[in-house]
Design goal:
5 helices, about 170 residues, mainly alpha
């Protein structure tokens, strides 16, 4: 048996989903995911892991994440383009240098490292749902519309960059 949506229903759902694009700033998404992860860790059993090694690993991962975020922001500032993720149409330059040679979205990669650090600190397997949810949300509602804007704005240069450099890592 194959179930099919009526085209009008599917179209409406797609329009509704597009309405969420570029609406919630990534730092807000991150804060919501952090709080959800904390709530999950309180409601589910945690792993028994010694505090000092766990904290050391969490700090190391968080520092890597912050470093990646800063490198991305510095590259944007050097290119004199917007860092505002809600207004990709304000982009004035295609940034492909520095950390952008390794990832098209290093600032999101940095946030992901911080979320993984938080998972380690919480010592809770179920908290891993947070970084997964972050990636799924950011891919669909932040990166996809950013990529459409960059493709329209920079054409073949962006297409070449997109084929040469991975979205995440």
């Amino acid at each position: 048996m194959i179930l099919r949506c009526e085209p009008a229903i599917g179209d409406a759902l797609f329009r509704d989903m597009r309405a969420l694009e570029l609406k919630v700033p990534p730092p807000v998404v991150t804060a919501l995911v952090v709080m959800a992860m904390w709530g999950i860790s309180l409601a589910t059993p945690s792993l028994e892991v010694s505090g000092v090694p766990r904290a050391a690993i969490a700090v190391a991962l968080a520092l890597i994440g912050f470093g990646i975020d800063v490198a991305g922001a510095v590259s944007f500032r050097r290119a004199k383009t917007t860092i505002n993720p809600i207004k990709p149409e304000a982009t004035s330059a295609l940034v492909t240098a520095g950390i952008y040679r390794m990832s098209r979205n290093p600032m999101y990669v940095g946030i992901l490292f911080v979320l993984i650090a938080w998972t380690v600190y919480l010592s809770n397997v179920w908290a891993l749902m947070g970084p997964v949810a972050f990636v799924l949300y950011i891919n669909r509602f932040q990166i996809a519309p950013e990529e459409r804007t960059l493709a329209a704005r920079f054409g073949d240069a962006y297409s070449d960059y997109k084929h040469a450099v991975r979205r995440w890592l």
